[in-house]
Amino acid sequence: MKLIRTEVAYDAALARIDALMSASEGSPEAEELEVLAILVEKYEEEHYPIPDAPAFEVLKLYMEQNGLAPKDMVPYLGSPSAVSKILNGKKELSLHQVRVLSKELGIPAETLICGNPEPGPEVDWTKFPLVEMARRDLFGAEHLASKSKTLNAAAAELMPKLIEEAKLDANSQPRMRQGLKLGPASDPYAVMAWLIEVAKIAQESQPDRPYQGLTREDLKNLASLSKTLDGIPKAIEYLAERGVPVVIAPHYKKSKIDGGVIILDGGRPAIGLSLRYDRVDYFWFTFLHEVAHIVLGHVKDFLADEYLDPGQSEKIEQEANGLVEAVTIPKDIFDQAIPQPELAMLEEIIELAQRCGVSVAIAAGRVRYLTGDYRKFARLVGIGRVREMLPPCNVTSAMNIMSRLPINNTSP
């Protein structure tokens, strides 16, 4: 039997296949049918290729066949906004979303990956803070002392390799474009560099225990640890016991990142903190804020406070802040205890913290925030105390380089 090379031979093969469809299993005719089917498939692949459908069309077809509405896709894609953008072809599926859809709904991953729109302009890898990243040993020992010119020349090779090691996404370029927010507050490439560093360290230091979710009760338990002298290391240990690594990585010079949540390969969340300000109140608010994002289900891919979809940013931040307020010092209790924050007395702050079962630093920090006067109660907020509470065996090797980098300890 020969390869099919012409339309005449193709038509003849199809006719012969029709004639053999009722062949008994194991018969010579059945074997002939199997070989013909392979030859016809090969000819069709070469002469009648079926174009890949865009991923959003594949998803909409699946939803139609299974009677699913857009709201039913929120648990798999992250938010109503994300569902709308993906179904309208305005946003690509991330690798994590592809994995979730494949695992939870049984949609073949290849139909969602192959069907993605063509990527847009390539990332300019030289815009990343390459020298600073090299000094943090992210590119290997051979690049620790490399100059900017050398790193720029090798950036197109170094950065994709680093992203692959961090397992952020197999398709790194769309990930780089997605959510980039230009503005004076932070350089988006510096923010992304920080996220990559957090992800890489977290991948290498995952707790032995599997992640099984975090609840509001977990958040409340973490807040109550703030009142103990060793509350900070205990809080990090608490999360590790629940399968969530905490990474301390200094912010980059052109970023103002405080914290973020990364979803690691396999679906485990990891929290990154920059300790941009070494203050006890600042640590607890940032730490609990990132845990709140996990508790509220905001994080399906990755999330950082400087790296959000502008359409969802305000709502997400308000929800996370509201939950942190509720488990630390609820607004009604604060208003009752300190009706005039600008006139707050030391005794009132201490009494409020004791009543709510949290650190005095948190209560003092709330007063400072509401009044906008960061000179108030400076001795209560634990300036310069956080790093000394973190043991050398902390979950992140990033602590080893913190002393070599400039850290801004000025109150925000």
Q: SSE layout and pairings?
A:
Elements: H1 7-20, H2 28-47, H3 55-65, H4 74-77, H5 80-87, H6 95-105, H7 109-113, H8 130-135, H9 148-166, H10 172-177, H11 188-204, H12 216-225, H13 231-241, E1 246-248, E2 259-263, E3 269-273, H14 280-295, E4 302-304, H15 310-328, H16 331-337, H17 346-356, H18 360-371, H19 386-389
Parallel strand pairs: 1-3
Antiparallel strand pairs: 2-3, 2-4
Protein model, in words:
- By secondary structure, the chain is mainly alpha-helical.
- The chain folds into 4 domains: 7-47; 55-113, 434 Repressor (Amino-terminal Domain) (Orthogonal Bundle); 121-178, no CATH class; 179-404, no CATH class.
- 51% of the residues lie in helices and 4% in strands.
- The chain contains 19 helices and 4 strands.
- It has helices spanning 7-20, 28-47, 55-65, 74-77, 80-87, 95-105, 109-113, 130-135, 148-166, 172-177, 188-204, 216-225, 231-241, 280-295, 310-328, 331-337, 346-356, 360-371, 386-389, and strands spanning 246-248, 259-263, 269-273, 302-304.
- A 4-stranded mixed β-sheet has the order 1-3-2-4, sandwiched between helices.
- Strand 2 and strand 3 (269-273) form a beta hairpin.
- Helix 1 (7-20) runs antiparallel to helix 2 (28-47) and helix 12 (216-225) packs antiparallel against helix 14 (280-295).
- Mean pLDDT is 81; it is low at 115-121, 170-184, 306-311 and 393-412.
Q: Could you tell me how far the N terminus lies from the C terminus, measured between alpha carbons in angstroms?
A: 78 Å
Estimated helix fraction: 40-55%
Number of helices: 19
Number of domains: 4
Mean pLDDT: 81
Strand order of the largest sheet: 1-3-2-4
Stretches where pLDDT falls below 50 for ≥5 residues? 115-121, 170-184, 306-311, 393-412
The structure class reads mainly alpha
Oligomeric state of the chains in view: single chain
The proportion of strand residues reads: under 5%
Order of helices and strands: HHHHHHHHHHHHHEEEHEHHHHH
User: So what's the overall shape?
Assistant: elongated
Largest sheet: 4 strands, mixed
Q: Give the C-alpha Rg.
A: 27 Å
What's the total number of strands?
Answer: 4
